[in-house]
Batch of 4 targets.
Target 1
Amino acid sequence: MGYPHSHELEVGTILSRHFGDPKARDLNTWLTYGGYEGLKKALEMEPAEITTVVKDSGLRGRGGAGFPTGLKWTFMPQEQKGPHYLCCNADESEPGAFKDREILRWVPHLLIEGCLVAARAIHAEHVYIYVRGEYFPFTNILNDAVVQAYEAGYIGENILGSGWNCDLTVHIGAGAYIAGEETGLMSSLSGGRAEPRIKPPFPAQSGVFGSPTTVNNVETLAAVPMIVVNGSDWYRQWGTEKSPGTKLWCCSGNLERPGNYELELGVSLKDVIYEVCGGAPNGKKIKAVIPGGSSTALLTADELDVPSTYEGLQEAGSSLGTASPIVLDEDVNIVRAMRRIADFYAHESCGQCVQCREGTSWVAQILRRIEVGDGRLSDLDTLYDLCEQLTGRTICVLADSVVFPLRSSLDKFRGEYEALIGGRP
Ligand SMILES: Cc1cc2nc3c(=O)[nH]c(=O)nc-3n(C[C@H](O)[C@H](O)[C@H](O)COP(=O)(O)O)c2cc1C
Ligand code: SF4
């Protein structure tokens, strides 16, 4: 195959090198690890130069959609007076995803530095890090690091004598998945409910408090300092042309070695599951993998030999998402697994759109009926119909999120549904 396999990978190169090392949380130790060198370099660069390096590196947003980061930064109006903001999205709530948590927990200064470099690139005077409410212990670690960085002059007025000012506030959310959607996040941050709104206007036009804003994921921002220090070609030594760099993988479910792994993009998904994570425990066969977190279409065990890039997973009919494969072994009841996913989205729907508010609940109810043996064959038609009604008709894509795993499970595991239904029309 033309793409790298896991034995050729460097693991833990950029983001995770200091995971598990509590000393890395301390500023003085962090400086001996090369901390804040990216910020120092960025302070000597023009904002547009920083954006160009990040653009050339090909870094793509790690919040799920894979939007090119440098390109997003160019959308911020350069000449417009008044405040500009950077929001770091640390709401991480997608079932299966647990990578941003590890960055907050082990390398908070890497994230702070990434935020400051990005803020300088987009002319932001204030950074907000919006942290998922349930991440309280990790927020404490982040807060301690922010205090240290303020005291040492890395945040605040006249940063390191450069004349540039930038503040940073850590904001704790109340624990809603929908606050991770960028317009919901900004609404929550501005004092409203975490309810998404239609775009346009896009955040760069009207974001936090109505001002130009960029929203970036924790992992995206944490990759920035080393790209600035080492250059775009250095970052491109990993991954593929369209999906460069390394990625934190959150591997969960029926695996011998579940966990967090930093791997080069482009590695075969099959290698991630079998070589890196050891396959399913107790010699069980793998039935399916939901590759990118719970909102992505599932792949059967025969479909795993695909390059784990944004384009590779898309060609395979799924999505890289947050690179959070959930592995289901031969004993897993697919209908039950889908019902649990549907329950999650039904619970987390903000309720603004009828299709989403009602449709996600109907999906969950129908799946529950099939699961307990009260389903009918016509339920499968109704589920397909609901998939249509939930796709592309709502303010945000939470509604679509339930469709990807559901429709793929209906297409690929119809036999399991029919076995539970037992021929009732
Ligand atoms: C329902 C929903 C939930 C989301 N949750 C998160 C989240 O928890 N963290 C995140 O970074 N992005 C999340 N996103 C994506 C954000 O809207 C946004 O695209 C992302 O934060 C941009 O950062 P990036 O360009 O660095 O990926 C979510 C999107 C949707 C539709
Ligand atoms: S799709 Fe669902 S979560 Fe998104 S805005 Fe509409 S009701 Fe809210």
Target 2
Amino acid sequence: MASVHEQSRAVAAMPGPRGLPLLGSIHEIDLKAFHQILEDWAEQYGKLYRFHMGPRAIVVTSDAETIKRMFRERPDLFRRTRRLANAVSELRFNGLFSAEGEDWRRQRKMVAMALNTAHLKPFFPKLRVTTERLLARWDRAAAEGSVVDLCRDLMRFTVDVTTQLAFGIDVNTIETDGPVIQQKLDKVFPILNSRVNAPFPYWRYLRLPKDRDLDRALVDIEAKVNEMIADVRRRMAADPSLYQAPTNFLEAIIAAKETEGVEFSDADIFGNVCTLLLAGEDTTANTIAWAVNYFIEYPQHFARARAEVDALLGAARLPQEIEQTAALPFIEAFYNETMRLKPVAPLNAMEPLEDIELDGYRIPKGTIIMMLTRRIAMDDARFGHAAEFDPDRWLKSEAERGCPHDTTAFVPFGSGPRFCPGRNLALLEIRTVLATLCRNFDVSLADSGRAVEELLAFTMMPKNLQVRLKKRPS
Ligand code: HEM
């Protein structure tokens, strides 16, 4: 990051929408489409611009080199925004995602270790059981001809997987009728999205119905999470060897607190359990849902994915071994292309911890900088014919295709020291579910007259993705 020169210009001199006095551009911003509005402005004002939310100036960059450097220079030069930390802290969900500095370093080791690839192979049989449950749920929906709310079903799947891997608990929301923790977690991200971007923290003074609704959900989440923590503590008391050889994240963090004197409080444990539940749920579920939406849109790609899975699985209805999930090159290309065009985190916000200079402008410390990560992957200079959905770009070399394929501009999981520690788990879930879906069902939109739209609720999800499944003849 360039050092600040005396001649550098102020943020106010950057291009950007004019906005209204005091209000700035608030009236032009719909938070559910925030990413699209910022991308449209980038088209108009260029790679570096500013806009105002109330009196506060926010800087927006879609310069790939700047974004890569910002990702890299953490936690010392950049942090996630203080607004995020405050909003998360008010929910008492402080964990790895919102931690900074030394606090972050301490927690990162523990989480990264728990989600590390070495744990995925022994975990696969449990993931297979959870996938069999999802398959049975979809078999039923296909037999009844009922409409499947894809994102909701997939969130049940991802919550079940995360709780099993990270806490050793089988909540089995897929086979549970009635209210489940996933429905409560659902309330958190939309409110977090609006609070993080709100010009004024109204909820500290006035609870709107949506805030009261969240308060009620938080009571239930807290009860469920505390019950899980208590279960694990009981399990460890009954088998003290787990303190020496913990088998998952929750056991490891409890053991670290109680045996090694590592500074973890009960609040850290609670916050990180919630963080993993939230970070692992919508992200993975929405990525799979976007991929299914592309399957519907491009039947030729669906047929190719299905042929690949059929050849691999023989008579089986889903992958039996983890190695099989790694032998699906077309499916891998397909979900990479999905994440390039429909990343569930299309933007990412940070603040510099000291004054910095960007492109001749002085950015004071504490200024929010929005990084448009989808936009850099949609630049023709980085990915040839970038607007086209073309899985083959991931299978052929640049020379074969005769156009650029710069994977350094593809950052759906972030990058640098804080890149997503759940990436490998997420990719395993994505591969397993997509293979299972291709193998067993034809899929179509339940209402083809309703367009599937992007909806930002902290993560970017497909709105109106209701589908019908038709079982393939065996
Ligand atoms: C397709 C699925 C997923 C996507 C696209 C995704 C994306 C991301 C992104 C963009 C970040 C920010 C990275 C950065 O700042 O450089 C992140 C952070 C994080 N993710 Fe994921 N994620 C996914 C799945 C998961 C899963 C399954 C888990 C765990 C169960 C998880 C846990 C986390 C955590 C704990 C962080 C914070 C890391 C830190 O601040 O050090 N994610 N993820």
Target 3
Amino acid sequence: MEQGLISNIQHYSLQDGPGIRTTVFLKGCPLRCRWCCNPETQSMEPETMKGTVTGTWMTVDQVLREVEKDEIFYRHGAGGLTVSGGEPLMQGAFTLALIREAKKRYLSTAMETSGQGDSGFLLEIAGLLDTIYMDIKSMDEAKHRKWTGAGNAAILQNIVQVAYLKQRGRLILRTPVIPGFNDEPEKIEAICQFVETLPPGIGYELLPYHRLGRDKYTGLDRDYPMEDVKLPEGRIETLRAIVEGHGLGLWDYSI
Ligand code: SF4
């Protein structure tokens, strides 16, 4: 039976998709973004954070039994299961099995992915999902490599492929806005121009940089690489105006 290495299952999440979600964080990520707020999910091995081991092998059924404890919250909205990480494609076979079984149980499904991973798994999983969130961090290949540990070519290719599968608000592209990496207007302008080449109806949003993962680095006995960094006042508003100027934004889920 397929097993996945789970970092955490978060109940009653309001940030990870439409409605009230139960978010399953998988371990393992091929990237090493400097700003990562879930550093405990990067390694494909269990590890100790703040004296507690993070990383438990679970079957699809064990995960869904935990998810279904929240079913009452899904009844009056668009809530359901969100698979996140880490990078869910690092455990592609498990993620596919989990989403397939969740659909059999009539659960709404979403996934958050960096887009860095096996295209075969990605497209198969994307075809089943109700909503997929994909990061689009930068069009600047060299900077992408320097700040995340990998170039952006495979990610952009994967985005294009998913964009032809998922339209009308079911693919949402997101840019985490990181000071010094991609917070200049021309960087967001370049991303908007790329998004405009995709089929219509793709959602796009900016996520402002935050420091919520900072304590986890201490817990893992690692240095926080983004100490003393913050977004300049008014920057996110300026960048959002660029996005709106391109007619990009989020779709209404009820459509
Ligand atoms: S892709 Fe996400 S989980 Fe992976 S290192 Fe980057 S921010 Fe962290």
Target 4
Amino acid sequence: MSCPRISTGSPGLDDLIGGGLEKKLITELVGGPGTGKSTLATLAAVSCLKCGNGVVFIDTEGFSIERFRQIAGEESYDLAGRLFLFEPADFISQGVMIGSAEKVLKENDVGLIILDSATGLYRAELERGREAIQQLTRQMVHLLGLARRYDLACLITNQVYHDPAHNRLVGLGGTALAHIAKVILQIDRVGDCRRATVIKHLCLPEGGFYDFRIVREGIASCEGENEPARSEDS
Ligand SMILES: Nc1ncnc2c1ncn2[C@@H]1O[C@H](COP(=O)(O)OP(=O)(O)O)[C@@H](O)[C@H]1O
Ligand SMILES: [Mg+2]
């Protein structure tokens, strides 16, 4: 039986986005370096692998086998057998590998396709302006097509840049990426924790958040840790 959603591997995060990663659409994690995007991507991959499905993982940053082992635990060796890893070295190869992934999808029962990160290699192409953004848009449309045709969840991560006009961090890829992704979570550092905030969702209000800490096994809830301290006698 096909399940409409794939668990992120975190019950708190699943609740935040309405029960997990929805199939046939793109979910995007956007955040600065070290906020936990790759951890969340690996956690979702492991969760899907543990359910018995395959995972296509397109990694542009250098896949950490050690981090996969930490999150997958004792089963890591067996689970890795259903992990189809692609490691493009440049933006053109990223597009080619999204295309090549289709062969894996045809021959295996894959539940999730991950692109971590969608914009790391694109960043090096920014001087090509319009042409580069069109190429990125085509890659995302291709991914979305795969998610729809093969009934998959699709998780992408997106890096941020500083927008001096508004003095804030903004996801790369402009509105093209923001339109194509139907669920967007922004990840920020909040004290010792990280906060995932819903900034776009098809059927849930924006602004909901979940606080977590990055741990060896993936993430753990930070519930209550960021609330203002109450004085002893109040
Ligand atoms: N085993 C671990 N235990 C606790 N924290 C870890 C562990 N491995 C990595 N981290 C932390 O995870 C963070 C990096 O997360 P990552 O998911 O790679 O971020 P991003 O992909 O957003 O750059 C760093 O702060 C690092 O210290
Ligand atoms: Mg990363």
